[in-house]
Amino acid sequence: MNDEILIIHHSSSIQFMALKKWFLKNTVEAGTDEAGRGCLAGPVVAAAVLLPADFHHPLLNDSKQLTEKQREILRPFIEKNAISYGVSYVFEAKIDEINILQASILAMHLAIEKLSIEPEHIIVDGNKFKAYKNIPHTTIVKGDAKFMSIAAASVLAKTYRDDFMQQLDLEFPNYHWKQNKGYPTLSHRDAIREFGITDYHRKSFRLLPEQLKLKL
Hints:
By secondary structure, this protein is α/β, with parallel strands linked by helices.
């Protein structure tokens, strides 16, 4: 299959995803999304993206629908062709302090803050957000599969976070973060049982289903 064509299979049918460019036309509109909200370890990472009117790439879609190779193709293309983009990290201590929802919103705010042009409108993947500098915003459930700027933000957030977890894997190979990226897989939880937790684990999360006392 040509890497420049995205085909998604659903129950033996083939669907091509068509993303919308704008929620509001004739507006400087930024899309934002996060990655890593459901992980047991590592930061939550958010991205914000402003795209030009002529932006197009046939692979662009919700990052969860893409292969790792497709995301690797898209990331430099987005970075080169976006009007502006920002990526931010909120780490475990802050997640534990303010909870993962607030940390995700904070990460998106920090990513928007890095944009070189302040947007006039913000579109957000999901249904929860807090106003940023009183800029109007719209939350969109599954927005990363509906709008280009949110999809682009999802690709950047996912790839930056995956890179970070792969680097951590070099220091903590027992937890298989290169493969699971900090998500609650069986191998990750087995490693927590055997080796305890690291500074990168989220202490406020239910790290093991049986709620064992963890070795610190």
